[in-house]
Amino acid sequence: MQENWAGTERAPDRESGRAKSNGHVAGSKPWVSLCDFASPIRNLTPKMKKGFKLLYQNGCDCQVRTPKVQVIHIFHKKLFL
């Protein structure tokens, strides 16, 4: 059974000061989608950076963009910054 809880507030975003993340509950554990997450790299904790690396290694389709809207390419399951 999955319960949606889209719209939970997370880290602040540049325009509104708020960010929304989508997710659901499966097997009594929360799962969050990071596809619209926006944060400067310098603000990420070491655990968050590790999580992003693992996310991309597992085949996430998200495109990562810099503040100048340049796409960071993901090649052979590695994230190049």
From TrEMBL:
<keyword id="KW-0964">Secreted</keyword>
<dbReference type="GO" id="GO:0005576">
    <property type="term" value="C:extracellular region"/>
</dbReference>
<dbReference type="InterPro" id="IPR008993">
    <property type="entry name" value="TIMP-like_OB-fold"/>
</dbReference>
<protein>
    <submittedName>
        <fullName>Uncharacterized protein</fullName>
    </submittedName>
</protein>
<dbReference type="GO" id="GO:0008191">
    <property type="term" value="F:metalloendopeptidase inhibitor activity"/>
</dbReference>
<dbReference type="InterPro" id="IPR027465">
    <property type="entry name" value="TIMP_C"/>
</dbReference>
<dbReference type="InterPro" id="IPR001820">
    <property type="entry name" value="TIMP"/>
</dbReference>
<feature type="region of interest" description="Disordered">
    <location>
        <begin position="1"/>
        <end position="26"/>
    </location>
</feature>
<dbReference type="Pfam" id="PF00965">
    <property type="entry name" value="TIMP"/>
</dbReference>
